[in-house]
Amino acid sequence: MHTDSPPPTRVLYLAGWGRSGSTLAEGMLDQVPGLVGVGEIKFLWERGLLQNRRCSCGTPLRSCGFWVEVLHEAFGRVPDDDELRELDEASRRFRTRHLPGMLLRPTHPPDAGELGWYYAALARLYRAVAKVGGADVVVDSSKFPSYLTALLQAPGLDVRVAHIVRDPRAVAYSWQRHKEDPDAPNGELMPRMHPACTALYWSAWNLATERITRRAGLPYLRFRYEDLVTEPDATLLAVTRLSGVPAAPVRVGDRGELFVRRTHQVSGNPVRFRSGAVPLRLDDEWTLSMAPRHRRLTGAVTAPLRHRYGYRDS
Ligand SMILES: [Zn+2]
């Protein structure tokens, strides 16, 4: 039957808890013809446009040609500050960081009557990203399980979930490290978290992601950061298949380096600013440097889910 409605916009949603390698994964997926990786879209309004932080191409977002074109395509212009604040406030309703909330109320978004304008704006935005990016699929590494429920309300989006997980002890170690954030407005370091806290979040966040995806019946694939780094071809092939575009081999250099083109990612780990030859190495410093008591604590708190994801006690 013929209809005038445009074909759905495909979105590959990179889910997973922070410091699990999603920015690296997105940079790699962006190399695949048909996919465009644009970072953590939920932060477009606040960090991207209101704070005018840098796009991964190095330009402040309001001056980035890619995003200016996307906004004109979606809305006819760059929304004004009042409109951006309204969009940001709406998106904040899908940023549950509160652990009980994440597990108990993850699947009940505000209804369309109240936030219909916001869901319609999201639909226009993702459609415009695909068009301007010349891609069939938009890769969004927003990661929040709660934000997935907003995308499910947006009309005309075909959402598929690629869930990246990483050994929680490596994740907890990463959250302890002092790391510079070249994107922070006042030269602040990246946020840090105690391993006990990381362990709880790692478990709740990953479980909430599985639960929302399952209840919504979304196409889903879980993959491990460690496999992405050690077997990039096979891992990316599986994720690419989920997104529905033809598979393409990843170009890896003689020294195991990856060739990353300049991207236009909003927010995310500072590795997003790297382009050209980027070494592809497993970051397993935690196995040598993590305090034994933190290692034991993280291992114990995360044990059931960690075992299911194939991470042993060693
Ligand atoms: Zn840019």
TrEMBL record:
One of its GO terms (molecular function) is N-acetylglucosamine 6-O-sulfotransferase activity. It comes from the Bacteria. InterPro entries: Gal/GlcNAc/GalNAc_ST, P-loop_NTPase. GO terms for biological process: N-acetylglucosamine metabolic process; sulfur compound metabolic process. This is Sulfotransferase. The lineage of its organism: Bacteria, Bacillati, Actinomycetota, Actinomycetes, Micromonosporales.
